[in-house]
Design goal:
This protein is mainly β and about 550 residues long. Helix content is about 0%, strand content about 50%. The protein is built from no helices and 46 strands. Strands 20, 21, 22, 43 and 44 form a 5-stranded antiparallel β-sheet that branches. It has a 4-stranded antiparallel β-sheet with strand order 4-5-6-7, with no helix packed on it. The C terminus is likely disordered.
Length: about 550
Amino acid sequence: MASSKRTGTVNLWIFDLHSGRWHQATRGAGDDIEGQWSPDGRRIVFTSTRGGHKQIWWYEVATGRIEQLTFGDHEEEYPSFAPDGQRILYVGGPWGRRYFYIVPAGGGAPRVVDRPPGRAGAGSWAPDGRWLVCHSYDAGAGAIFLQDSAGAEEIPVTDGTAWDYKPTVCPTRQVVAFSRSNEGRSVIWVQRLGDGSGRPLVTTGADDRWPTWTADGQSLFFHRLIDDGRAIGMWNRATGEVQELVGADERPRYASFDPAARRIVYASERTGRSNIKILDLSDHVVTALPVGEASFPAWSPAGERIAFCSRRGLAHRWQISTVDVATGEVHDWTSGVVGLRRLHGPLSWSPDGDRLLFKSETEPFAANIYELDLRTGGVSAVTDDSWWDESAAYTPDGAAVVFMSTRGGDWTWGFYRKDLATGEIETLAGPDYVERNNPRLTRDGVLLSTLVAGTSEELYEQCPDGTGRVVAEAGQGVRYPVPSADGRMVLFARTHRTVEYWLAENVWAADSPVADLARPLVARAAGGTPISEQAPLGPVRSPVDTRRR
């Protein structure tokens, strides 16, 4: 069972594993998401906005009947049936003061799980019907823990140094599966509850999320997000001509011009890791820059340096770096700066070439814009609040910054301009629920960006008078518009995003990469003699690199 927008609205769909056919379950307005089967397979509990905001509903498979289960005036989401089918766990409340709730499956008053309010994430039930396995963002990232549904006891499962979320306990073994991200795409992580040992189910270049065990505990169902670069295009604003500069074989992601617009630097994921290359537009010669794993390259206004996001060796954390184009000398600027994290994103040079803009996450689901002074190495905040700000760029005169932000409230998308001298913030577009991002202001006052007007991202230009149009000649799947210095040409990445559903069968087979995690949990006496099976629940620690920050 999964959510899909294949008919125009987000509804629940059921996939028959035997026939290979999809069947639509729910219909109607609003988004129906996060569905979970009842233990007897007769009902599905899910989150829906059909009542105006997120609340918990259930769907009866045989009759198609839909009923609302919760009626809170705040967001309620992530429902999960208890093993007895009589109770449903969910999360509700304003962000920062969210609780885990349990409500009777037939309806009634919910009760609060005995835990202080905070940044609660999702939860599900352990097979015993008493313990819950949950995640929260109280530690500043995602952390998994076991919670007694009948009391206040809480047992940590992971230590909050990685972004761990959406946990589910195997029905037949003392093992938990969850999504894990270390400043990159997620993997399905499988971990023993007894000693904390674990590993990825599989590692690919895709983004694997939200595992769910089958009832027999032998298979894991999850979805995979694939976001591939297909081309680097160049749009001539005067003639409307669009030219493809880099093809799909390079899996390109982002590009920028040199000052004269005679060369471009772009990121390529051809090898599975991101590298940056220079393409000469006159002779089409491509030169790789030997700077290691790198992305989001941005050419300096004078052309002597290229800024980029870098990651060294086995490190998880992304840094802000520059390379001298002539000598190849690399300088890492943020490796010693405390408090910065998840810097992976577009960079912008100030017109004088002395400063760089970048995004850093500050709290879960919050990010600020920062400015790096390349003369001193100092880092200062351009925005400093609880919203999500990203994709910042200097205006052509360097006096202001344009950026995307959720500061309009309720996770809306909006474009804003901040005057660097006065601190005044002006709204340029939105805020609304039209997905828009990557604003860039040209010398003639046109605001270039991308937005989802239909089914995928498209290039959009907004004139100074507020009128605008979708640049149809650029096509679908457009992301990261970057204008040339004179504003005549615009580079963009063409991307293709798909969602796949996977079933990992026979997880505990002898040749499975996680087979050894199913071994019995055995406690030992002081002399090393096995004495009993270890209790299924107990303090554990996640085996992650604690030097990530």
